[in-house]
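ok so I'm stuck.
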Amino acid sequence: MGLDHFPDRSNWFVPNASMRDAYAPTPSENVLQDLEVIGDLPSDLNGMYVRNGPNPAHAPHGRYHWFDGDGMLHAVRFQGGKATYRNKFVETDGLQEERAAGQSVWPGLKERMPEGKLPDDAMKNVSNTDVKFHNGKLYSMWYRGGAVYTVDPFTLNTLGKLEHDPRLVGLQISAHSRVDESTGEFMFFAYGNRAPYMHYGVIGADGAVKTFIPVPLPGPRLPHDCAVTPNYTILHDFPLVNNPEALKQGRYSLEFHQDWPTRYAVIPRHGTTDQIRWFEFEPRYMLHVANAWEEVNARGETEVVMIGTPYVMPRDYDGSLDVKRLLFTVGTQGTDYELYQWRMNLVTGETKEGVVDDVLNSEFPMINTAWQGRKNRFSYNVLMGRPRTLEQPRFSGLVKYDFDTGGAVAYHPGEGFWFSEAPFAPRDGATEEDDGYVVGFVWNGLAERSEVWVTDARDVSKGPVARVIMPVRVPHGFHSCWVREAQLQAAAVA
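replied:
not stuck anymore, here's the structure
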């Protein structure tokens, strides 16, 4: 079921660019085969690319924010040099309630919540942010935290909620969880506006909850991502928070406390609350982690290293932090990021931090997931253009970082193209970290159509080796994953 029950959407309330052009929702669910290809699809590219994103099924309730749209999964299956596309709504409880009502009933980010309601209670879990593959299923998740929806990887039918364990019922699980392919474990954190404010857990390869602990915080926070190594999980506590008085009134108002440190909790993967170690750094805010790993230094001491893409901290003429400009950038979906590294010495407690790259403005880092938690060399990021319109970021190209050399190669095809987060897809039989492809949706504004670009990961500067033409428009979206053919085959027989 799509948007066909809205034959005329001309009366939809469209307050900003987030409901127009390539941001606008697509009206139908499709299964499309034998797609047109410009170039040659590599025969050794086999598996599935899946991306999540907002796609409102009903006219928005009040002022619309891009993050408010109902989750829709878009999947492209590659097999033997051919591509098949399908898309489908994530059938959340909130969406089903609105289908029954025939209209939108939930407030969005820009609206005041009902009297006496916190956003935790009053906002619809749209499950539109990230998607991961675990235990033979796709997991669809929401950035604000909520129930994880499980999805059939072949049909994209919503199967239900990941609440088989009573400890998961009602938990606000973050969108940015991590899967360790070597163990099959799924590491997650949950956060909200009520004490204890954060939990951490591990779900095993068999789907059973193996670890679940509270993570003490001094108050409600706005973490976004986490990181894992073979032995540890790293959780985030940033000095960017919601104003508590505004929350009591049912609305959001960000504030940044420049006198608070950024804190990272290093937790043994199956540890207990009393084993959490906190490390303090300069105040910053970050959305996404590229990777983390354990490294033994010259003194034989183990350090946890984490690389991510925090916001650039804007400065006034006197060198002090320009908090107003930072909040404006974050609040209006501005894009000003740098590649950054943090080091945490588990023996001495010492910390180090610093810029890896402040030349290129990039975000949405993706790696070869076989290197998740291990020291990797390469990261594939989206090149971020400078926004020309408020709340309308520009995803303008691709960047391949080489952590060993400190260098980077970028590809930007020119004006009129909008990229999506592009996961790494190993070629059949690959043994080296960058032996494969980078796969992602691209909006071709010159031809006004959606495409999937397949780029050789060893030389992104040459642009795509193949472009799959989408007969339908795929709206701009958020996070994605690559599911290897072997994983799909194992899920098919499970």
